[in-house]
Design goal:
Blueprint lengths: L2 H20 L17 H19 L4 H6 L10 H18 L5 E4 L2 E4 H23 L7 H10 L1 H9 L20 H8 L14
Antiparallel strand pairs: 1-2
Helix pairs in contact: 1-5, 2-4, 2-5, 6-8
Length: 203
């Protein structure tokens, strides 16, 4: 898959996350997110900080510098603009670095290509977690859901085996034997089977 395809799905994953983030009000921040160990505010901070960490990883920053960002506050005065600022830096680096080169992720050495795919998953799946925390539906578009289900399902399972996701929560087929949607399958294999979905048209 070439970089233009990855850019397309990164765009869609970012839109998914921004939609979920834009619905957050101050009263939601202390409520539990879909990641039960985090409040909504902690989840947002983790996701925004993820853009910074991924940019540093692609730039071959030492692991200690990358890990030090985990204890920092990345929310700023405007959560959406803080996300966009870090994400712009990450996207700029993806276009400039050698994505074939390995980066020292804490789960082990992985290629830059793998890291970018992980960012797509992080954006989209944490949008589901944040939507659960605010009582909204997951705003996933059908093209992104299909890509995640068909192209990234193996990566989801692999990351789940390292503790990155909960165990799969359901079979790939509904009780009556009909196949589930791409979006539901993604939620199922990432241990998020009960989150409500609002599938948006792809474009």
């Amino acid at each position: 898959m070439d970089l233009s395809d990855i850019d397309k799905y990164l765009d869609r994953a970012e839109t998914c996350w921004e939609t979920a983030l834009s619905r957050v009000v101050e009263a939601d921040l202390d409520s539990p997110s879909g990641c039960r160990e985090w409040t909504n505010e902690q989840l947002i901070n983790h996701l925004i900080g993820g853009g910074l960490r991924y940019e540093k990883l692609l730039a071959q920053a030492p692991p200690a510098i990358v890990e030090a960002t985990r204890g920092q506050n990345h929310l700023g005065e405007d959560r959406l603009e803080s996300f966009r600022a870090h994400e712009r830096a990450f996207r700029k680096t993806t276009g400039e670095c050698d994505l074939d080169a390995e980066v020292p992720h804490r789960i082990g050495p992985i290629s830059g290509h793998q890291l970018v795919k992980m960012r797509i998953l992080e954006l989209a799946l944490h949008a589901a977690d944040l939507s659960a925390g605010t009582g909204d539906e997951w705003p996933i578009d059908d093209s992104l859901a299909e890509f995640m289900s068909t192209e990234l399902s193996g990566l989801i399972v692999e990351l789940g085996s390292t503790g990155g996701y909960a165990p799969p929560s359901a079979d790939d087929h509904a009780d009556e034997g009909a196949p589930v949607s791409y979006a539901q399958r993604v939620l199922n294999i990432s241990g998020r089977g009960e989150i409500a979905i609002a599938v948006l048209p792809g474009h």
